[in-house]
Specification:
This protein is about 0% helix and about 55% strand. By secondary structure, it is mainly β. The strands form 2 sheets. Strands 2, 4, 5, 6, 9, 10 and 11 form a 7-stranded mixed β-sheet that branches. It has a 4-stranded antiparallel β-sheet with strand order 1-3-8-7, with no helix packed on it. It is elongated, with a radius of gyration of 14 Å.
């Protein structure tokens, strides 16, 4: 069974930092695009950052130069380092695995989310 489990969320003051982690089980993340999404109350879920299996990264304009996505294929982990956090970064953050392989076909898996609150 493929599963993604996020951790590292919590309450942080504006200007602070958090490191989110996404642990994958039942599948190797190395063959897939891994992304972090977020959903704030009353808003649609949006892409924050993604990294392809080839190592290319993409970021939402609002988090460029502030957040960094990385992956450790050996540990089957994906991370999101969030710096200089703002109240508008408050949301539930989700990890997503997506891609196609001959073995699994097209696959899309979401984690359960980890809440981040930026407030003084």
């Amino acid at each position: 069974q493929v599963q993604l489990v996020e951790s590292g969320g919590g309450l942080v003051q504006p200007g602070g930092s958090l490191l989110l982690s996404c642990a994958a089980s039942g599948i190797s993340v190395s063959a897939y695009t891994m992304g972090w999404y977020r959903q704030a109350p009353g808003k649609q879920r949006e892409l924050v950052a993604a990294t392809t299996k080839g190592g290319r990264t993409d970021y939402a304009d609002s988090v460029k130069d502030l957040f960094t996505i990385s992956r450790d294929n050996a540990k089957n982990m994906v991370y999101l380092q969030m710096n200089r956090l703002k109240p508008e970064d408050t949301a539930v953050y989700y990890c997503k695995l997506e891609g196609y392989t001959k073995l699994t076909g097209y696959l899309e898996v979401w984690g359960q989310g980890t809440p981040v609150t930026v407030s003084s």
